[in-house]
Specification:
Elements lengths: L5 H78 L8 H13 L5 E5 L5 E4 L14 H7 L4 E3 L3 E2 L6 E10 L5 E9 L18 E5 L5 E4 L15 H6 L4 E7 L6 E8 L6 E7 H4 L1 H19 L2 H12 L5 H37 L5 H25 L6 E3 H15 L7 E7 L3 E3 H21 L7 E10 L2 E8 L14 H12 L3 E5 L7 E7 L10
Parallel strand pairs: 13-15
Antiparallel strand pairs: 1-2, 1-6, 3-5, 4-5, 5-6, 7-8, 7-11, 9-10, 10-11, 12-14, 15-16, 16-18, 17-18
Helix pairs in contact: 1-6, 1-7, 6-8, 7-8, 8-9, 9-10, 9-11, 10-11, 11-12
């Protein structure tokens, strides 16, 4: 017996449509999740870049105040020592009291004075001065060779046995000769006193760098890293030519990719730097990725029964004509059940999308979720209409469009806003393959009319007209609102692109024109018949 009977051919077409619907649903869910994850990724990176820029600005101001305060204190000590006749002329107890008093009123941890040979003379936080020569230190050598001020690179102290950050000033004897130096020292808690980064997580790194790439100060700097240089880092070449900037690069300390912002201080040979690992910046995005997977898996899994039903349907094709006739009756029930299941799956997906939108505070992102939910509801209404009718694959357009328009009117509170719906619906029906694109197009046009056509308090009306004849279907949606800007059809929005793409899919003609009354907007769409008209028809 041939399997090319009309019933078999119809079953094949319906099965193909269902498989097409299944693939479209899967692609729609995957595409939506991809778009939302991409948007959230870019937002997370942008937030991290803005955060590092703001923190760097705060760090810059803190560093300037610290250096200015340290310079004033060092200048005060230098004046007191000079007035007393130089380092050799001031008594050690008096010098110690001076250092201790000034240290208590500044951000530095302690003050130290060394003589012209590099030997410590007095330290603010201890009376016993160790006999440890510091003549080989870079800061001492800088003053020995004439530098008045010196912002030193981080060092490991021989006196305290810890990492220190230093600023120092040259001392001059009454006879004008080099007389030693005053050093202001800061311990590792230097950055916490700035009040920055306390809520940013332990992965945020703050640094002060010298013009040659040396580390002046860095949060959580370990002793083995004291002599490290940033000259090989991309940041060095960046701040050598710019005063400020933000970029992504691998850290020279642990190789992790970081978002880094820097600012060069104007009066001081120092660059303020804030770095945040990309993995930390994307922590919220990873959470969104987890939630997206939690949404996608149930949605995909809910389609498994549909696949099972399709396999059952294909197995009936090999049976005899009598069995096929009996199966045709079963398939009518089956297809109604399929529409019911698809409608339920789309409702579940729409609800999950709305739940996902609650995670976002950005109105634009939440609006995008709501628009997606509306499109899913429009598709679900197609299947609900089919489920409630005696037709397996023909949608009654007047009934469907009436329910769709009333649902959208309720969503946008049209009644409360004084917006009325009017219908001019002639009897017409359309196949399932074209009903879904028509539903999405009508949803986009009606949603835009409800949202944008009417000013608050004005009210108005929206008219939906449908007709069918030998030339195909004609759909018109007109409003008497404030009209559409002239360039709207070329604005590149997702909604306009969707209308244009679906119109091409239907091989239809569509467009927006002013209505006959002269105000508002009219959308019209002419959908050709499925098969060409016979000659002379």
């Amino acid at each position: 017996m041939s399997d090319r009977t009309p019933a078999t051919a119809g079953a094949r077409r319906i099965r193909l449509l269902l498989l097409l619907l299944l693939a479209t649903t899967l692609l729609l869910i995957a595409g939506l999740l991809g778009i939302f994850l991409s948007l959230e990724y870019r937002r997370a990176i942008a937030r991290a870049e803005a955060t590092t820029r703001d923190l760097t600005l705060v760090l810059e101001q803190f560093a300037i105040r610290t250096f200015e305060n340290g310079d004033q204190v060092a200048a005060r000590i230098a004046d007191e020592i000079l007035a007393a006749g130089g380092v050799s002329g001031i008594r050690p107890p008096v010098l110690h009291q001076l250092l201790a008093r000034l240290s208590a009123n500044m951000a530095g941890d302690y003050l130290m004075v060394v003589d012209r040979t590099g030997m410590p003379v007095s330290i603010s936080d201890r009376r016993d001065v160790p006999a440890t020569s510091l003549a080989d230190r870079a800061w001492f050598q800088a003053h020995l060779h004439g530098a008045e001020q010196h912002v030193g690179e981080a060092l490991f102290s021989r006196i305290t046995g810890e990492v220190l950050y230093t600023y120092s000033r040259r001392l001059i004897a009454p006879d004008g000769r080099f007389d030693g130096a005053v050093q202001v020292s800061f311990r590792q808690r230097f950055f916490s006193t700035a009040g920055i980064g306390l809520n940013q997580g332990r992965d945020t790194v703050f640094s002060l760098l010298g013009p040659a790439g040396g580390i002046i100060a860095r949060s959580n700097l370990a002793p083995p890293d004291v002599d490290r240089t940033m000259a090989a880092s991309p940041i060095f070449s960046a701040y050598a030519t710019q005063s400020t900037g933000t970029f992504r690069a691998a850290s020279i300390f642990d190789g992790r990719e970081e978002i880094t912002s820097f600012r060069r201080l104007e009066r001081w040979p120092v660059v303020a730097v804030t770095s945040l690992p990309v993995t930390t910046a994307l922590a919220s995005w990873y959470g969104s990725l987890w939630w997206s997977g939690a949404i996608a898996l149930p949605a995909f899994g809910s389609l498994v029964p549909l696949v099972f039903l399709l396999l059952r349907a294909s197995a009936t094709e090999a049976r005899t004509r009598d069995a096929l006739n009996r199966a045709l009756a079963d398939k009518e029930v089956l297809f109604r059940e399929v529409h019911h299941r698809v409608k339920n799956n789309l409702q579940v997906t729409s609800s999950l999308v709305q739940l996902q939108s609650a995670k976002f505070s950005d109105p634009a992102v939440r609006a995008a979720f709501e628009e997606t939910a509306e499109r899913l509801r429009a598709i679900g209404l197609v299947h609900e209409t089919l489920y409630g009718s005696n037709q397996a694959a023909e949608v009654d357009l007047p009934s469907y469009l009436t329910r769709l328009a009333q649902g959208l009117a309720d969503t946008y509170a049209a009644g409360e806003r004084g917006i009325k719906l009017q219908f001019r619906l002639n009897p017409s029906s359309i196949d399932l393959e074209r009903a879904v694109p028509v539903a999405l197009i009508v949803t986009e046009v009606l949603s835009n009319a409800m949202k944008h056509a009417f000013r608050p308090g004005d009210g108005g009306s929206v008219t939906i007209a449908v007709s069918q004849d030998r030339t195909g279907h004609r759909v018109e949606i007109c409003d008497d609102g404030r009209g559409m800007p002239a360039d709207t059809q070329r604005d590149g929005s997702i909604g306009m692109k969707l209308i244009q793409a679906l119109t091409r899919q239907l091989y239809a003609d569509s467009g927006f024109t002013p209505p006959p009354a002269g105000h508002g907007t009219c959308f019209h769409m002419q959908i050709p018949p499925l098969s060409p008209l016979p000659p002379g028809a």
